[in-house]
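Q&A log
Question type: sequence-to-structure
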Amino acid sequence: MKTAYFYLTPEGEALAKRLSLSHPGDLYGKNNFRENMKLAFENYNSLVCIMATGIVVRILAPLLSHKTKDPAVVVLDQKGKYAVSLLSGHLGGANDLAREMAAISGGEAVITTATDVAGRISFDTFARRHNLAIENIGQLKKISGALLAGEQICVFTDQDVLQDDPELLEEEKKGILEIFSLSPPFPMPAENFSAVVIDEGFTFPDSEFAQFPVLYLRPRTICAGIGCKRGTSQEAIEAALFQTLKEAGISPLSLKCIATIPLKADEPGIIKTASKHHLPLEIIPTEQIEALDMKELGIETSAFVAGQTGVQSVSTACSYLASHCGKILRDKAKYKGVTIALSRERS
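Response status: OK
Response body:
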């Protein structure tokens, strides 16, 4: 997380330096601070402002976009008595950042988000903590409202690591949450049924629960391997990728990375596809592919591909190795000039 510290007084500067020793970041003084703060809003994950709250509000208000995009903003007085979570408390992490700043300064964190005040789990914070993508952010308010109203939330997941989350388990003990497997049968929904589904795909029966609020959280665990003919367009690669995901029943938000071989590292269509969807592009070394036992893994090989690329498998081998030798979900799907494979990262 890239953090920018802003201060206007010598005492504020001393506090910013002290905070940055424990939580590293870039420091900005009062020279051009309005312009610098506006630029930081677009280029940093979090802003820590040691000044009056009103100053920060007046500068940043015109820049506000959406809770899914705005950075975390925390405001402290120059003595560090209070650390106010001002913006993006949950998704941006400002609540946790305010608590961290208060712990360093010896002050008190000021948190005003309703679920935190009520001592209830906030699923946007939960999603950020576990690197989950929120598929339908509009349902988040309904789920939080149900929690605040004292209604029970059904959580559906087969993600073992998430079921070990202390906050989730504590809420389950209190009877606030009930955790179910994604294997049917599913419980019959009550009049006030609300659910959170934590899964890479579309295994939850949407049609049966269409009238109820259901929040989908997507683990970023799927590695897509891509092979293509030289000069294949981004549009063709993207269409093949999304078609393969659809056929496998996997949400595009569950993609963790795109992987290919060194020979395709400069392929514009692959590079643009990864960039457009903010996915890292992993280049898998040829020697790692050559070391795989393709037959044992059940990976389809091709003499033609080997002759063109020097390896017997491109998309599937790259997908598998990028997933840290996880589970192959889809051996190469063939399209005109493109092959796509999918693997789930080993947990």
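Response note: The radius of gyration is 24 Å.
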